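Entry: Small ribosomal subunit protein uS14
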Amino acid sequence: MAKTSAIEKNKRRAKLAKQYANKRARLKAIANDKSLPPEEQFAARLKLAELPRNSSKVRIRNRCEMTGRPRAFYRKFKLSRVTLRELASTGQIPGMTKSSW
């Protein structure tokens, strides 16, 4: 089980990223638009830098929904490999069986 503080910090980051997503996307579009004057692009980049760092989507860490483990994460199941194996072995994931050949 991961530290509760790390899990909560990640949740706060996800909440902030969702809150600032529209504003960040708008500013990024202005900053990357080559048809606008350089001064306007630079102003947009400055405003983008003023936003909270944790509002950036890249700072969110994929974590297992059950244990909070940050590594060996399967996006399709939102679980870590350890949890996925345990649940699959007990038959709690429909359609998943242990392979044998």
